[in-house]
Amino acid sequence: MTVVDAESRFHVLAVDDSIIDRKLIEMLLKNSSYQVTTVDSGSKALELLGLRDEAAESSPPSSSSPDHQEIDVNLIITDYCMPGMTGYDLLKRVKGSSSLKDIPVVIMSSENVPARINRCLEDGAEEFFLKPVKLADMKKLKSHLLKKQQPRKCQPQIQPEPEQRLEAPPTQPAHRPEEALAEVTADGATTAVSDCNGSNKRKAAAMEQQEGLTPPESTKPRLSNSSLAVET
Hints:
One of its GO terms (biological process) is cytokinin-activated signaling pathway. This is Two-component response regulator ORR4. The chain is α/β, with parallel strands linked by helices. It has a domain at about 10-55 and about 70-150: Rossmann fold (3-Layer(aba) Sandwich). Helices cover about 45% and strands about 10% of the residues. Strands 2-1-3-4-5 form a five-stranded parallel beta sheet, sandwiched between helices. α3 packs parallel to α4 (about 85-95). The protein is rod-shaped. About 20% of the residues are buried.
């Protein structure tokens, strides 16, 4: 789909009591490939949008509901100074409707009054153009039209990670100083006894070895005096 085809889908409602200004804005919008519907008053604009003018509320109600939109309008561009209902009044009615409040509204005026401009922008107007309107102003409308057409993007929901609880290591029972000293003393005594027993065993083994090599004196033969005499 080309840019021209995309822009041709947008329908603009132009409201101006001056036929010259109305023809000019219609020409500029068509040259920008927009579909255009023009009316000469704010009350007629409300009728096309399905809203009734306050002055016509005393008349019998029409078959259409008050908030029913008769035509599919993507943007409203209206003159500020008009007899009966001004462009600011039309802005307030549109923004006060639950079914029309999302339609962008642009105000036009030949008078550069800062207080008027600020009031319109604060109350919901997208732009405020000074007359005569130029073709460059029409290009500004596209950003507001596309902004209203963009679908809302859903942000992915981030699931929180489960909290990991760190378990504390089991604590060792505290030893009292007296118990620790008793344990050290007992260990030391046991070690000393073991060393003594080992030393005694080594000494006993050495003595037994020496006794095996040297015969005891009781086993040697003894020579008596009588034996010595006989040999002589």
